[in-house]
Amino acid sequence: MRAAVLVFPGSNCDRDLAVAFEKAGARVSMVWHKDTGLPEGVDIVAVPGGFSYGDYLRCGAIAANSPICGALKKHVERGGFALGICNGFQVLTETRLLPGALRRNANLKYICKLVGLRVETADSAFTAGYEQGQEITIPIAHHDGNYYADDETLRALNDQDRVAFRYVENPNGSVESIAGVLSENRRVLGMMPHPERMAEPSHGGTDGQAMFRALMDQLATA
Amino acid sequence: MKARVTVMLKNGVLDPQGEAVRHALGSLGFDGVEGVRQGKVIELDLAPGTTEDTVVQMCEKLLANTVIESYSVEMG
Predict the structure, then answer these.
(1) Which helix or strand (DSSP H or E) is residue A163 part of?
(2) What is annotated as the active site (chain A) (predicted)?
(3) Which domains does chain B have, with CATH numbers?
(4) Which end of chain A is less packed: N or C, by CB atoms within 10 Å?
(5) B63 and A57: CB-CB below 8 Å?
(6) ipTM score of the complex?
(7) End-to-end CA separation in angstroms for chain A
(8) What is the pLDDT of residues A110-149, one digit of tens each?
């Protein structure tokens, strides 16, 4: 599997994400936001956490209009995989590759803590390593993670089994406690929690590892 | 020429910052504040001849996230 991790000014989880992919056995390229193309043969594009462009205007808004995001959109339109974590999720909603938007946390506070997540579907390359209904512990660290989607979108997400994760205890006001959603073709996942920060024993837990291993299994090329 | 773009969360989208401001006003003794919505104003200095239509495109493409925000444009 070849993974590309996008790097924007202000990204700060790009190295962690690259290490999580590498430990699962992927070959990883870091790709600068001004690049207009992805390396040949990339299977999955990962959009990391952080504060791209200082969160100016809206979280993820400027990054979504950067040159590399043109290449990201083409990659997804071709049926390529993409994973957005935290600020990466915000970027994916701003590009409209995923539905909904992330608002300011309901309590207006930056929240940095471990949270329980319930795996709502194992039917995706990202979540195939979990059991449906399994509860895992993954950290969150965000100020704007309060997921919003209108009623029609929520219906579609539920009917199509596209809610990947829900918070066991809603920390930020997200509608229906949604923590992560899949695209219609199930090849794009955005989530606020950070599985890459829970990917080896020295992190204090390994509940995030299954995501990277499952991706490796599902996307391994001959 | 100038344009002034006002971006607000859409009606129906909970505005936690506006709510916090409303509570703060209440605790300062200002009674009767029944709702507060907080948005942002973006002022643009534009080359002469820039049309309102172009500013609307700027709003659609970047200045507002129309999933949760509405915008209005004032030219002049």
Answers:
(1) strand A163-167
(2) 86, 194, 196
(3) 2-75 (3.30.1280.10)
(4) C
(5) yes
(6) 0.85
(7) 9
(8) 999 999 999 999 999 999 999 999 999 999 999 999 999 9
